[in-house]
Amino acid sequence: MKRCKGEFIGNWGTALFLALAAVPPASPQLNPEVPRVKPVNMAGDLRAGEKVYMTSCWSCHGLVGDGKGPASLGMKPPPTDFTRPEALKERSETEILDVILKGKSGTAMYPQPLDPQSSVDVAAYVRALAHSPLKEKSFLEGLSRGDREAGRVIYDSRCWPCHGPTGRGNGPASKALKPAPADFTDPDKVVSRTSARLYQALTVGVPGTAMAPQSLAEKEKFDVIAYLRSLVKYAEGQTAPPREPESGDPRAGKELYDKRCWSCHGAQGEGDGPAAAAMIPPPTRFSDYEAMKDRPSQDWFSAIQSGVPGTAMYPQRLTDHEAWCLVAYIRSLGRRKSDTP
Asked: Spelled out in words, what is the top-level CATH class assigned to the domain 250-339?
């Protein structure tokens, strides 16, 4: 028994030795393989850059790049407004990438942990924001063609479980959502919830919330925006102008104008207020008699009380009497050329 066991072990050891001996010795590796580095497309991919932006940048710089993200309040200096053409005009690609990767001292901009390609992509995207289609004529034309009723149908099929049947943000799914869904009926929030922001939210969603991108055609997005803008609730009796306009007091209207309107429309109604430079389309020139003379007073009343979709003109919380006084003053600003000295 012992002899058999020894023979077995001996035979097994010999076989192992012969097998190992048959393996050729490994040749020395003179040129170890260098890991491949993926080349960087320096032109940048705008779609990829948008994804990076919506992950890392939007909370400060805003959904549309205007520097008005939810985290921007109180920042000194404020985040860069990329929608201004001059914002990045003088900066080279290297300078922009340096800020992205290294941060910027004295600001809230800290280094971003991005790979080289992602850095180039987001740099290309923020450059493109100054020429954003949200500010082009086609966007404004799309807003003007928005069908409120068609938007209501889409809202009722997609949006009401979160935002509620009347847009108050109190749908059956809202209790479990943090942050809560947007309340589209609150006039005080209409100022910041521009049509451009609504379009962006429908297109890419809102990071950090339950609002996901919506698979809608362009026309459908404009329809939904038109409907959402109609959901704002005002005090009783302010949703539509009376059939017969009041004879407002232009002196009382001037007081309202000087408090609410001059910063956009200018002190003399020339559309040259300090806030006007960044507005597309620009504020209305009330001093242009030819443009003013054929527009009914009811139109001005509606613009004051309901806002003008696609512009910076948001609804004003005025009584009917105050609105008619403001209309009277606005009308007084229109001057015939013959009246101008």
From this structure: mainly alpha
Q: Which CATH class is domain 46-131?
A: mainly alpha
- CA 309 to CA 230: how far, in whole Å? 9
46-131 and 250-339, same CATH topology: yes
Give, to the nearest 10 degrees, the angle between helix 46-56 and helix 116-128. 90
Burial zone of 241 (CB within 10 Å; 0-12 exposed, 13-18 middle, 19+ buried): buried
Domains of the chain by residue range: 46-131, 135-229, 250-339
pTM above the 0.85 mark? Answer: no
**Which amino acid, one-letter code, is at 44?**
G
The architecture that CATH gives domain 135-229 is Orthogonal Bundle (1.10)
What residues have CB less than 8 Å from 102, skipping those under 6 apart? 111
Could you read off the pLDDT of 16-41 as tens digits, one per residue? 444 444 445 555 555 556 556 678 88
Rounded to a whole number of angstroms, the distance between the first and last alpha carbons of the chain is: 131
Look-up: residue for tokens 């009497």? 321
C-alpha span between 72 and 109 (Å, rounded): 11
Average pLDDT taken over every residue of the chain: 77
